[in-house]
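Hi,

Apologies if this is the wrong queue. I'm a grad student, and the batch job for Thioesterase from Sulfoacidibacillus thermotolerans produced an output file that my downstream script rejects. I'm not sure whether the problem is my script or the file. Here is the sequence I used:
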Amino acid sequence: MESRLDIVVRSTEIDVNGHVNNAKYLEYLEWGREDFYEQAKLPYDVLYRLGYVTVTANININYRKEAKQNDVLTVITRPGLLGNTSFTLEQTIILGAKDLLIADASVTIVTVDAATRKPVLVPEQLRKWF
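Support response: The file is valid. Your script probably expects a header line. Output copied below for reference.
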């Protein structure tokens, strides 16, 4: 499965250098992960009712090109590696009109029991997407 989320860069996301501030890319990636979960029919409230939450443990991001105000970016999220209690999502941000790579990231996520806050096996409802 792959999710694709389009984002328009707003003026409030631009820094003093005239391009998207580096911290905003992390927010874009988070929106992409939320879209991935929604397409998998596992948004936060559903996972929580099943007794799970997911916690981001590591983000390794490469900033490739700058994006500017009014650019239309696409955040692409794909399953990566699957472990016992964790998994990775591979994400890219492209400038849609030119298919230009803006950033790419590998995000490690841990599955946690909602009550005990301890790592647990990745549930089957998530495993099937890997």
